[in-house]
């Protein structure tokens, strides 16, 4: 009986019109800032933004964002410690169906993904995203700031969930019905951390391509760069230019496409693919369609697991079938270098080519 009463009460509440106390979303938005009482949080600005608008952004990333659906935009920051702060935004659509969505980041993760905010709010989710505790994709903010690292590692998404839900309830006059998280790569890692550390934050988590075991992943990425000649790949005999990566991709497909019994242009079973790069070794073939011995050796290393000093596996190999992602490898990414210099060597200026 009690359960039925609670269900009926929640059903009736969910069908009440939004903004009934204010007359319109615009009026509710204009009064929101004065109604917010958020712990350790400062509301920078609250503004009503019509659909089809373009707005200036926070931080050091994309300066302009597109707003598809009409929203109440809340910009705020939360002090997570005496030495760290998370900047975030909540985009609250006029047409809201009771769903809350927190968004993740990518790479070293210091940019609010405004296109993701726009996507979520245009799909009628009250959507929140943050800068993950620092601005930009440089690793410099991590130097001697462990609390900033904690924000990056796990805490920023918890801030999105806790503060974001309070903003949602204050604006719409009722709490969310369901809460979700969406992120890929670093965002996927953030999603798994949210599930482990704060299992009550979300009803559902979509963690795409999670960059878990992050330190070993970065180590592997750095070694991969070295295999193809970083930090000066263009002058290295092991460097594989983009046009030859396409040749490699075609050979991987030739060798491994049919492992699953179907030739469909997809390597469905990469774990079963024992790719032999020596088939591309230059002989009589045109050198524009074949590889030198140093290039073949680089591929052998790339398609082999990374081992430590005691033969323990540090990170799995590069999966055959993902060669289109290898084409941009080129010069070694400064983002990975930043993480090594700042987090491992406690310096923002030491060169990496000796390590």
TrEMBL record:
Its EC number is 3.1.1.-. InterPro entries: AB_hydrolase_fold, Tannase/feruloyl_esterase. GO terms for molecular function: feruloyl esterase activity; metal ion binding. One of its GO terms (biological process) is xylan catabolic process. Keywords: Calcium, Carbohydrate metabolism, Disulfide bond, Hydrolase, Metal-binding, Polysaccharide degradation, Serine esterase, Signal, Xylan degradation. It is an enzyme of class 3 (hydrolase). It comes from the Eukaryota. It catalyses: feruloyl-polysaccharide + H2O = ferulate + polysaccharide. Pfam families: Tannase. Belongs to the tannase family. This is Carboxylic ester hydrolase.
């Amino acid at each position: 009986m009690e359960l039925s009463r609670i269900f009926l009460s929640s059903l009736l509440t969910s069908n009440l019109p939004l903004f009934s106390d204010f007359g319109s979303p615009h009026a509710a938005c204009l009064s929101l800032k004065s109604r917010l009482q958020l712990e350790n949080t400062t509301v920078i600005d609250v503004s009503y933004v019509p659909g089809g608008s373009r707005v200036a952004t926070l931080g050091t990333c994309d300066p302009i964002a597109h707003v598809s659906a009409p929203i109440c935009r809340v910009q705020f920051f939360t002090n997570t410690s005496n030495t760290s702060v998370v900047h975030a935004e909540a985009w609250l659509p006029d047409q809201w169906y009771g769903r809350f969505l927190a968004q993740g980041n990518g790479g070293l993760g210091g940019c609010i993904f405004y296109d993701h905010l726009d996507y979520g709010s245009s799909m009628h989710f009250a959507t929140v995203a943050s800068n993950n505790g620092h601005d930009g994709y440089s690793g410099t903010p991590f130097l001697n700031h462990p609390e900033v690292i904690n924000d990056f590692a796990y805490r920023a998404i918890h801030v999105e969930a806790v503060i974001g839900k309070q903003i949602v309830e204050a604006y719409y006059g009722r709490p969310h019905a369901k809460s979700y998280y969406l992120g890929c790569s670093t965002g996927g890692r953030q999603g798994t951390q949210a599930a482990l550390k704060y299992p009550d934050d979300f009803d559902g988590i979509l963690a795409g391509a999670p960059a878990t075991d992050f330190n070993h992943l970065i180590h592997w990425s750095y070694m991969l760069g070295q295999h193809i000649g970083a930090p000066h790949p263009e002058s290295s005999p092991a460097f594989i230019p983009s046009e030859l990566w396409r040749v490699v991709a075609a050979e991987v497909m030739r060798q491994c496409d049919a492992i699953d019994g179907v030739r469909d242009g997809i390597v469905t079973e990469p774990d079963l693919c024992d790719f032999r790069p020596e088939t591309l070794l230059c002989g009589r073939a045109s050198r524009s369609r074949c590889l030198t011995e140093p290039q073949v050796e680089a591929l052998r290393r790339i398609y082999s697991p990374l081992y430590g000093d005691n033969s323990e596996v540090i990170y799995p190999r590069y999966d055959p079938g993902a060669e289109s992602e290898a084409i941009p490898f080129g010069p070694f990414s400064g983002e990975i270098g930043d993480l090594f210099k700042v987090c491992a060597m406690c310096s923002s200026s030491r060169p990496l080519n000796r390590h």
